[in-house]
Amino acid sequence: MKVSQALRERRSVRAFLDRPVPPALLRELLQQAARAPSSGNLQPWRIHVLQGEALQRFIEHIAKRLASDPEPDPADYAVYPQPLQEPYRTSRFEVGEQMYALLGIGREDKPARLDWFARNFRFFEAPCALFFSVDRCMGPGQWADLGMYQQSLMLLLKEHGLDSCPQACWARYHRSVEAFLQLPAERMLHCAIAMGYADPEAPVNRLVSQRLRLETFCTFIE
Protein backbone atom coordinates (compact mmCIF):
# COMPACT_ATOMS: atom_id res chain seq x y z
CA MET A 1 0.00 0.00 0.00
CA LYS A 2 1.29 3.45 -0.90
CA VAL A 3 1.29 6.22 1.67
CA SER A 4 -1.22 8.12 -0.48
CA GLN A 5 -3.64 5.19 -0.36
CA ALA A 6 -3.28 4.73 3.40
CA LEU A 7 -3.90 8.44 3.92
CA ARG A 8 -6.92 8.42 1.64
CA GLU A 9 -8.48 5.32 3.22
CA ARG A 10 -7.74 6.04 6.89
CA ARG A 11 -10.83 7.08 8.78
CA SER A 12 -12.20 6.93 12.31
CA VAL A 13 -13.76 3.48 12.64
CA ARG A 14 -16.46 3.05 15.28
CA ALA A 15 -17.34 -0.64 14.99
CA PHE A 16 -14.81 -3.47 15.21
CA LEU A 17 -14.76 -7.21 14.72
CA ASP A 18 -14.14 -9.54 17.66
CA ARG A 19 -10.70 -10.40 16.30
CA PRO A 20 -7.51 -9.87 18.31
CA VAL A 21 -4.58 -7.88 17.03
CA PRO A 22 -1.43 -10.05 16.78
CA PRO A 23 0.87 -8.85 19.59
CA ALA A 24 4.04 -9.16 17.52
CA LEU A 25 2.57 -7.05 14.73
CA LEU A 26 1.41 -4.41 17.20
CA ARG A 27 4.86 -4.17 18.76
CA GLU A 28 6.45 -3.85 15.34
CA LEU A 29 4.14 -1.04 14.25
CA LEU A 30 4.50 0.86 17.53
CA GLN A 31 8.25 0.76 17.04
CA GLN A 32 8.09 1.76 13.37
CA ALA A 33 5.90 4.76 14.17
CA ALA A 34 8.70 6.10 16.39
CA ARG A 35 10.35 7.30 13.17
CA ALA A 36 7.82 10.15 13.28
CA PRO A 37 9.37 13.65 13.29
CA SER A 38 10.39 14.93 16.71
CA SER A 39 11.84 18.38 17.31
CA GLY A 40 15.23 17.98 18.98
CA ASN A 41 14.60 14.22 18.94
CA LEU A 42 12.80 14.53 22.30
CA GLN A 43 10.36 11.74 21.36
CA PRO A 44 7.86 12.89 24.02
CA TRP A 45 5.20 10.25 23.37
CA ARG A 46 4.39 7.71 26.09
CA ILE A 47 1.96 4.87 25.41
CA HIS A 48 0.03 2.31 27.45
CA VAL A 49 -1.42 -0.68 25.58
CA LEU A 50 -4.53 -2.50 26.80
CA GLN A 51 -5.70 -5.82 25.35
CA GLY A 52 -7.52 -8.90 26.59
CA GLU A 53 -8.09 -9.14 30.33
CA ALA A 54 -6.42 -5.79 31.04
CA LEU A 55 -8.75 -4.05 28.59
CA GLN A 56 -11.80 -5.66 30.19
CA ARG A 57 -10.64 -4.63 33.66
CA PHE A 58 -10.28 -1.06 32.46
CA ILE A 59 -13.74 -1.02 30.84
CA GLU A 60 -15.23 -2.27 34.12
CA HIS A 61 -13.21 0.35 36.02
CA ILE A 62 -14.52 3.22 33.91
CA ALA A 63 -18.09 1.84 33.92
CA LYS A 64 -18.12 2.00 37.72
CA ARG A 65 -16.83 5.56 37.60
CA LEU A 66 -19.51 6.64 35.12
CA ALA A 67 -22.26 4.93 37.10
CA SER A 68 -21.25 6.57 40.39
CA ASP A 69 -20.13 9.96 39.09
CA PRO A 70 -20.73 10.86 35.42
CA GLU A 71 -19.49 14.45 35.85
CA PRO A 72 -16.21 15.09 33.98
CA ASP A 73 -12.98 15.71 35.85
CA PRO A 74 -11.55 19.23 35.92
CA ALA A 75 -9.96 19.62 32.50
CA ASP A 76 -6.21 19.41 32.08
CA TYR A 77 -6.57 20.92 28.63
CA ALA A 78 -9.37 22.10 26.34
CA VAL A 79 -10.11 19.59 23.58
CA TYR A 80 -11.83 22.40 21.64
CA PRO A 81 -11.57 26.17 22.07
CA GLN A 82 -14.43 27.62 24.10
CA PRO A 83 -16.49 28.99 22.54
CA LEU A 84 -15.87 27.15 19.28
CA GLN A 85 -16.19 29.76 16.55
CA GLU A 86 -17.12 29.52 12.88
CA PRO A 87 -16.32 27.89 10.53
CA TYR A 88 -15.06 25.25 12.97
CA ARG A 89 -18.34 24.94 14.86
CA THR A 90 -20.26 24.12 11.68
CA SER A 91 -17.64 21.57 10.59
CA ARG A 92 -17.97 19.73 13.89
CA PHE A 93 -21.76 19.88 13.81
CA GLU A 94 -22.02 18.60 10.25
CA VAL A 95 -19.82 15.54 10.74
CA GLY A 96 -21.83 14.62 13.83
CA GLU A 97 -25.10 14.87 11.92
CA GLN A 98 -23.62 12.83 9.09
CA MET A 99 -22.70 10.07 11.53
CA TYR A 100 -26.10 10.00 13.26
CA ALA A 101 -27.85 9.90 9.87
CA LEU A 102 -25.91 6.73 9.01
CA LEU A 103 -27.01 5.29 12.36
CA GLY A 104 -30.63 6.28 11.80
CA ILE A 105 -30.69 8.38 14.98
CA GLY A 106 -32.62 11.64 14.68
CA ARG A 107 -31.73 14.90 16.42
CA GLU A 108 -34.74 14.60 18.70
CA ASP A 109 -33.77 11.13 19.95
CA LYS A 110 -31.52 12.27 22.81
CA PRO A 111 -31.48 8.90 24.66
CA ALA A 112 -30.26 7.07 21.55
CA ARG A 113 -27.57 9.67 20.98
CA LEU A 114 -26.40 9.36 24.57
CA ASP A 115 -26.37 5.56 24.28
CA TRP A 116 -24.24 5.81 21.17
CA PHE A 117 -21.83 8.27 22.78
CA ALA A 118 -21.42 5.85 25.69
CA ARG A 119 -19.86 3.36 23.26
CA ASN A 120 -16.80 5.62 23.26
CA PHE A 121 -16.09 4.39 26.76
CA ARG A 122 -16.02 0.78 25.56
CA PHE A 123 -13.69 1.69 22.68
CA PHE A 124 -16.49 0.72 20.28
CA GLU A 125 -15.75 -2.91 21.22
CA ALA A 126 -12.26 -2.70 19.73
CA PRO A 127 -9.91 -5.49 20.89
CA CYS A 128 -7.06 -3.08 21.61
CA ALA A 129 -6.78 0.39 23.14
CA LEU A 130 -3.77 2.69 23.29
CA PHE A 131 -3.49 5.56 25.77
CA PHE A 132 -1.14 8.42 24.99
CA SER A 133 0.38 10.70 27.59
CA VAL A 134 3.05 13.38 27.69
CA ASP A 135 5.11 15.00 30.43
CA ARG A 136 3.41 18.12 31.79
CA CYS A 137 6.58 20.14 31.26
CA MET A 138 6.23 19.71 27.50
CA GLY A 139 4.78 22.48 25.34
CA PRO A 140 2.89 22.87 22.04
CA GLY A 141 5.88 21.74 19.99
CA GLN A 142 6.02 18.38 21.75
CA TRP A 143 2.23 17.98 21.49
CA ALA A 144 2.71 18.38 17.75
CA ASP A 145 5.33 15.62 17.88
CA LEU A 146 2.82 13.41 19.69
CA GLY A 147 0.23 14.04 16.98
CA MET A 148 2.74 13.14 14.28
CA TYR A 149 3.50 9.87 16.06
CA GLN A 150 -0.21 9.08 16.26
CA GLN A 151 -0.76 9.82 12.56
CA SER A 152 2.27 7.74 11.60
CA LEU A 153 0.92 4.84 13.64
CA MET A 154 -2.58 5.06 12.18
CA LEU A 155 -1.21 5.01 8.63
CA LEU A 156 0.93 1.99 9.46
CA LEU A 157 -2.12 0.26 10.94
CA LYS A 158 -4.02 0.92 7.72
CA GLU A 159 -1.18 -0.52 5.66
CA HIS A 160 -1.53 -3.77 7.63
CA GLY A 161 -5.32 -4.03 7.34
CA LEU A 162 -6.07 -2.53 10.75
CA ASP A 163 -8.27 0.44 11.55
CA SER A 164 -8.41 2.94 14.36
CA CYS A 165 -10.35 5.72 16.04
CA PRO A 166 -8.57 8.49 17.96
CA GLN A 167 -10.61 9.41 21.04
CA ALA A 168 -10.21 12.75 22.79
CA CYS A 169 -13.25 11.93 24.97
CA TRP A 170 -11.02 10.23 27.54
CA ALA A 171 -9.72 13.65 28.60
CA ARG A 172 -13.12 14.08 30.31
CA TYR A 173 -12.23 11.36 32.81
CA HIS A 174 -8.48 11.67 32.81
CA ARG A 175 -8.11 11.14 36.56
CA SER A 176 -9.79 7.73 36.39
CA VAL A 177 -7.63 6.76 33.43
CA GLU A 178 -4.45 8.00 35.09
CA ALA A 179 -5.30 6.10 38.28
CA PHE A 180 -5.82 2.81 36.42
CA LEU A 181 -2.64 3.26 34.38
CA GLN A 182 -0.74 4.45 37.47
CA LEU A 183 0.62 7.43 35.60
CA PRO A 184 3.07 9.53 37.61
CA ALA A 185 1.89 13.00 38.65
CA GLU A 186 4.15 14.67 36.10
CA ARG A 187 2.42 12.88 33.19
CA MET A 188 -0.70 14.21 31.43
CA LEU A 189 -3.17 12.07 29.51
CA HIS A 190 -3.69 13.23 25.94
CA CYS A 191 -6.08 10.79 24.27
CA ALA A 192 -6.68 7.16 23.37
CA ILE A 193 -6.79 5.29 20.08
CA ALA A 194 -9.16 2.35 19.70
CA MET A 195 -7.82 -0.10 17.16
CA GLY A 196 -8.55 -3.43 15.54
CA TYR A 197 -10.19 -4.87 12.45
CA ALA A 198 -13.13 -2.83 11.17
CA ASP A 199 -16.58 -4.39 10.91
CA PRO A 200 -17.33 -4.01 7.18
CA GLU A 201 -21.08 -4.45 7.75
CA ALA A 202 -21.49 -1.61 10.28
CA PRO A 203 -23.25 1.43 8.74
CA VAL A 204 -21.25 3.86 10.89
CA ASN A 205 -18.05 2.72 9.20
CA ARG A 206 -19.30 4.22 5.95
CA LEU A 207 -18.75 7.68 7.41
CA VAL A 208 -16.23 9.70 5.42
CA SER A 209 -15.77 13.19 6.81
CA GLN A 210 -15.42 16.00 4.30
CA ARG A 211 -12.20 17.95 3.86
CA LEU A 212 -11.77 21.56 2.81
CA ARG A 213 -10.65 22.42 -0.68
CA LEU A 214 -7.01 23.46 -1.00
CA GLU A 215 -7.92 27.06 -1.84
CA THR A 216 -9.68 27.38 1.52
CA PHE A 217 -6.65 26.70 3.70
CA CYS A 218 -3.58 27.22 1.52
CA THR A 219 -2.14 30.50 0.22
CA PHE A 220 0.43 30.46 -2.58
CA ILE A 221 2.71 33.52 -2.51
CA GLU A 222 4.21 34.35 -5.90
UniProtKB/TrEMBL annotation:
It comes from the Bacteria. Residues 7-197 form the Nitroreductase domain. CDD domains: PnbA_NfnB-like. Its cofactor is FMN. The keyword Protease does not apply. GO terms for molecular function: oxidoreductase activity. Keywords: Flavoprotein, FMN, Oxidoreductase. The keyword Amino-acid biosynthesis does not apply. Belongs to the nitroreductase family. This is Nitroreductase.
